[in-house]
Amino acid sequence: MRAHHTGPEYLVQTAAMARRFYLEGKSKTEIAEEFGISRFKVARTLESALHDGLIQLEIRLPAELDAGLSDALRTRYGLRHAIVIDSQQEVPDDTVQATRRLGAVTADLLAEIVTENDVLGLVWGPEVEAVGLALTTLARCTVVQLCGATPLRPVDATAVEAVRRAATISRGVVYPIYAPLLLPDATAARMLREQPGIVDAVSRFSQVTKAIVTVGGWGPGLSTVFDALSGSEREDYRHRGVCAEVAGHLLDAEGCIIVPELTERVIAISFDELREVPEVILMADGTERATAASAALKTGLFNGVVTDARVAESLL
């Protein structure tokens, strides 16, 4: 069968069809009517033009976003949201800069997905503080703090200020938690949960529609809980299999809570309450948190992830 000769008329018509379809958004049926051919021929022509290089599609994203890893992570874990930051742009060992970049991208994601009348839940942590500092726009929504605070390292703002900033930008109501994350014992935690200001926040946990949650590794400077415990407690929990901390709850490598007695000492949203939140997004940065991020995803709590390329590669 004689091959079709790609003469000047074929080339200019194919270019015109491509312009109609890719740039003007016309359907193949509309193009077929304009050129007096079948829509099947339009489809074949566009397909051949792509194959032969006459049409070249280029997808351009900001340099910091890794589209391939983002899509692979979304597919592997069945996520609704998966954003991976290119680690090559980071300065080695510059954890502060990495956290700021993660916070900035997460802030942009919230500006994109939070709608009016959402109830946004935020845990405490340096990553969430970075989100608060980077937020410039947010739909009107209620903002609820999902756990108390435990100082981890010098930061630019307190937990309450990060939550209040989000509420100020969204022009919504805020429910902060003026309390530590970890209490000395279950009795103290129970008494604190009954205080009016904390009751106001905790009673809204069931109303949260979107939540940002961080994950901590089990090591110095990697967890809001690890640094607050005694050396003997840290080692005891390590021997029991703890490798991750999510909102004050300690997990093993399979994503199971394994220190329930510590859970009773925290002021934080429970996993049962988190499971009722329609969209829960995990923030995880740094290879030292890769194992912890894997454990967190195995809980089944999360349908979104914002992380860096090194963590994503480990998860994949």
Structural class: alpha/beta
Give the number of DSSP strands.
Answer: 10
Low-confidence stretches: 152-157
**How much beta, percentage-wise?**
5-15%
Main pleated-sheet profile: 7 strands, parallel
Q: Can you count the helices? A: 14
- How confident is the prediction overall: mean pLDDT? 86
Q: What letter string, H or E per element, gives the SSE order?
A: HHHHEHEHEHEHHEEHEEHHEHEH
Architecture (CATH level 2) name of the largest domain? 3-Layer(aba) Sandwich
Number of domains: 2
| Biggest sheet, spatial arrangement of strands | 1-10-9-5-2-3-4
CATH class of the largest domain: Alpha Beta
- What is the fold-level CATH name, i.e. the topology of the largest domain? Rossmann fold
Any idea what the radius of gyration is? 25 Å
The share of residues in helices is 40-55%
Sum up the overall morphology in one term: elongated
Classify the oligomer: single chain
What is the terminal separation in angstroms?
A: 47 Å
